[in-house]
Design goal:
The protein is 69% helix and 6% strand. The chain has 80 residues and is mainly α. A hairpin with a 2-residue loop joins strand 1 and strand 2. The longest helix is centred in the middle third of the chain and has 26 residues.
């Protein structure tokens, strides 16, 4: 939940800055890279990181309602 909150918070920060402080986002950092583009790249990296974290957790962590998934259980599932 904390990872999702961080990504959404960064998105909202970028949106609020774009609306209220456009001149701040236009400040050049290095060459053609300005503050707005740097924040957008940070948001992209955070989103990719959160997606990878979620995928890793989804592969390794089982929910409390998950039961056994061995071959014996799979055989009892009716085939269509």
């Amino acid at each position: 939940m904390a990872v999702t909150a961080a990504v959404v918070g960064l998105y909202l920060l970028h949106a609020v800055l774009a609306e209220t402080a456009g001149e701040l986002l236009a400040v050049p950092v290095v060459g053609p890279l300005n503050v707005g583009f740097a924040v957008a790249l940070l948001l992209l990296a955070a989103t990719v990181g959160a997606t990878q974290w979620h995928a890793r957790c989804a592969r390794t962590v089982r929910g409390p309602l998950d039961g056994p998934t061995g071959p014996a259980v799979q055989e009892r599932v009716p085939r269509r």
